[in-house]
Amino acid sequence: MYEFTYTTPAARVVFGAGSMKLIxxxxxxxxARRALVLCTPEQKAQAEVVSSLLGPSSAGVFxxxxxxxxxxxxxxxxxxxxxxxxxxAVAIGGGSTIGLGKAIALESSLPIIAIPxxxxxxxxxxxxxxxxxGLKKTGRDTKVIPKTVLYDPELTLGLPVRLSIVSGLNxxxxxxxxxxxxxxxxxxxxxxEEGIRSLANGLRGVKKNGKDKAARSECLYGAWLxxxxxxxxxxxxxxxxxxxLGGTFNLPHAETHAIVLPHALAxxxxxxxxxxxxxxxxxxxxxxxxxxxxLNQELGVARGLREIGLGxxxxxxxxxxxxxxxxxxxxxxxxxxxxxxLQRAWEGARPAV
Length: 353
Ligand code: NAD
What we know:
By secondary structure, this protein is of the alpha/beta class. The mean pLDDT is 95. Strand 2 (35-38), helix 2 and strand 3 form a beta-alpha-beta unit. Helix 6 runs antiparallel to helix 7 and helix 10 packs parallel to helix 11. It is built from 13 helices and eight strands. Nicotinamide-adenine-dinucleotide binds next to helix 4 and strand 6.
């Protein structure tokens, strides 16, 4: 029997190859006059193109976006927006640039238009992160959600294939856990299943040819859906483990997600049958954990945590940290099976279904 609450803050989404060219029209639709374009130093050329497409509606480019949004950069960006009389900001880039846009929106009334160029999905979530004195604080506020999102797959053609693959697998992890979320709902489950299907297919195409426009479009479509899931329902064991491993041992974020997911799903498989069926259906395989493990191999992702810098001696500590802070998960978190999960993920063994 169904029982759920479905609320979603509306954002305008414009999807399609070449949609970046609609930027000036979209600024007008928002009722704004002057847009400041945000980017990282690496994506300045793309930001300059957006600025020229804006013509007289451009308030210039601010290329100070950085990973983890240092508070000083957010302050500088806010001041800069004020000094050039911007009444809107366009964030073109991945989660770091969109994160800078969110930090601006948090403490000003500036509306944000996002043009995502990775599969991270931040543009669809009310989650923000700001780093102050070396500590990253995260929070949720619907005010930071971009008002308009332009998804233009052509902008992802230059995203390196290896980075595209791990970014896409990271997005799949959001959708997979969204399927057994405590606050899940049927709409998010539809989006999650379709997001996994699209990303798995699209990533196979990107692995063969990073310039394949159809595959890039399928990946970005999947990234939108997975981002929606991340923004609307809670995450569980898998995300907790990845935050623990990333935060405590400084492991690369997206690779850690890709390696751990099959094992976290195996842990929950006995109590989340419907979610497993949907993931397996999306991947066209018999078993969700095994299907994801095989997808990782096919896409050439590192097999085990040992290959990305975790020492075997760290596994006990990782297990303790993950146990120390209770959180919701469909199956109770118990020490021995959790330690066994970590061991398999470290070795790169098949998930224990
Ligand atoms: P990123 O934004 O840090 O980008 C990494 C590098 O790739 C940057 O130099 C960027 O300029 C470059 N790049 C991005 N797109 C490119 C393209 N198409 N072609 C060439 N280069 C390109 O990477 P990310 O993985 O998108 O974002 C990671 C950050 O986002 C993390 O800090 C993470 O915590 C955050 N994040 C937040 C949320 C949320 O909901 N708040 C969700 C996902 C990720």
